[in-house]
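Data availability (excerpt). All sequences and predicted token strings are deposited with the supplementary files. A representative entry, 3-phosphoshikimate 1-carboxyvinyltransferase, is shown inline so that the format can be inspected without opening the archive.
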Amino acid sequence: MAAAPMFDRIAIVGLGLIGGSLAAAVRERGLAREVVAGVRSARTLETALAAGVVDAGSQDLAEAVAGADLVFVAVPVAAMAATFAAMAPGLSPHALITDGGSVKGSVIAAARQGLGAHMRRFVPGHPIAGKEKSGVEAADPLLYQSHRVILTPEPDTNAAATAKVCALWTAVGAEVLTMSAQEHDQVLAETSHLPHLLAFSLVDTLSRQGHSHDIFRYAAGGFRDFTRIASSDPVMWHDIFQENRDAVLTALDRYVADLADVRSAVAAGDSDALLGLMTRANTARAWFLARQGRTSFTHAQGALDEDAMTQQQQAAAGERSKPEFRLQPGGALTGSVRVAGDKSISHRVIMLGALADGVTTAEGFLEGEDALATIQAFRDMGVVIEGPQNGRVRVHGVGLHGLKAPARSLYLGNSGTTMRLLMGLLAGQAFDTELTGDESLTKRPMERVAKPLRDMGAVINTSGSGTPPVLISGGQPLKGLHYDMPMASAQVKSALLLAGLYAEGRTSVTEPAPTRDHSERMLAGFGYPVERDGATVAVQGGGRLTGCDLEVPADISSAAFFLVGASIAPGSDLLLPHVGMNPTRTGVIDILRLMGADIEVLNPRDSGGEPVADLRVRSARLKGIEIPAELVPLAIDEFPALFIAAACAEGDTVLHGAEELRVKESDRIQVMADGMQTLGVSLETYPDGIRISGRPDGAAFGSGDIQTHHDHRIAMSFSMAALRASGEIRIHDCSNVATSFPGFARLSAAAGLNLTVLEP
Ligand SMILES: O=C(O)C1=C[C@@H](OP(=O)(O)O)[C@@H](O)[C@H](O)C1
Ligand SMILES: C=C(OP(=O)(O)O)C(=O)O
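Structure token line:
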């Protein structure tokens, strides 16, 4: 026997696009035994009956709703009060009532008057699924699929009624959100009502001009796109602007004030103000598209156009939030691969470029999500940044004291480097800031930076466990200090040097072992004096930076996956051009060479203050080693990849002194160990390292499923394992690869890895 439908009788009062489409969807899915319409016009009812959208109907609203267990009111918002009053006498005592009005405050007020004792079973709602088309002729049973419906239950609304209405919308394919009516009206005023008002108003202004005929003749795509929504139903929008008057006025006033600023910028030829506006808006729209498609920011930038996407494509993009890498075993890496730009250097280009006087340009910039998070943070602090486009950025420096207070907290995604360096930089500003990040960043320790900064006079709060969010109180005078760093961390060192730019006197840091020195090199490149004496580096506060032109080399940390892949896959011969060879970063090459790898350094040269070279790597028989302690900080990000090499080496590889790996984007010792054990590798973990027993011949890995734990380097390391696996490897949740290496999947497949990206 078929399951009983969700409702016995649904009454739809008002059969326009919204009411008609719900009626059609309910009938098509068999969600009610009977669908009855309450309508004003006999002709609408005739059309709906002929189209099979409803079973029956009446022009008498009390009669139409009689015996219904759910009533959906979908009349224009201005007609709600009269409609509620007219139907109330016919409502059965247990009937649930909901509506589809675009304004909630005024509809709720009307319902309180008209529905009387039925009010507790009234669940105010708003399906966000309009089109320019209207009328029951446009009714579409799929209209609500993958669209949002906002419910705004009142404190006295019956919870079971809300749950049942929610179930109905879910059953027709919608995603249901709940918020207060006030919040709804404000959000909608900004995201829907204001844009409609502007579209109507712009078309009106232009059409009333003397030469409007010509304007429309020459009006091209921009005009059509901007004004598409001016084709919507004028009466409906007239009602909305009146019913949501206060919220619309607030949004309009804010916009008019901003528009006045835009006018002044155009009049004054203020190109920084204009570029700032355009670049901020451009990025904001890319973020919005990324969120809408729930895809990664780098996917969305320039790649998607929401208008060009079909509903199915948008739904697919939503699913793409967690792409999976699927790898077939075997293969060799050959040819030439130019890997992504250096992440550490890209962050610093933006930071120092922003603090400099004049313009800074860079080529080869990393268009990965971490670097984009840094860009966004500085845009939020008023810095104009053009690009990145094809690896080019232009930063319009504002000087050491030119940053502006951001309007909201700075969201830094997955990027530990951005957060820690910014803590130092922001400690010296006149304004307060809050730094937040994603799930992985929110677990990472920030006290290592906060503590010495407090000793300089900064006021910084972290959460109870020393993790983000980080609150930095501005306006604190900083004093230089000497700091003996307890751990080898370039992020801590850099944060203190950046704070040192704002401190009185000299700030010096001594490191227990050499760490990457990009901050020192780049400060010098911007003309800021940096003293170096053995393990100590120091700056004097109060200097200035001058904008310059830079080139970002390819990231040796990204090259590392290919150095390992080509070493372990027989028959490989791969060229990696223009890789950064800063001696504080080349530990991965030293370690691989100690293991017997065949890596040639070709054409070494200088590129804007950083050494670079082309690397040629050929497969080799690797042997296990004890990794020398002094190389650990020089290869800190490359260990996940090196563990894969170790599993293919003869004998044991032992790592100690690497407890830092436990507080990266994931606990890289544990997450790598778990994944390798899944693939049959024998190993033992230590608090500060790992012992891996390798298999030099044949397959070193089996097949299986790998979890990345939001860590890009885990995903890319296990991809290389496939070159020496006996079966398929499936790596789940690989969206994080875009953090440091967008394009990894395409480049590695072109070089010979059997990788497909599954975007379910
Ligand atoms: O300064 C930098 O750009 C970085 C320093 C390192 O972190 P630690 O300073 O925490 O070792 C490294 O792991 C990170 O990927 C980038
Ligand atoms: C540790 C890393 O980066 P961050 O600390 O900037 O998140 C990394 O890229 O491996």
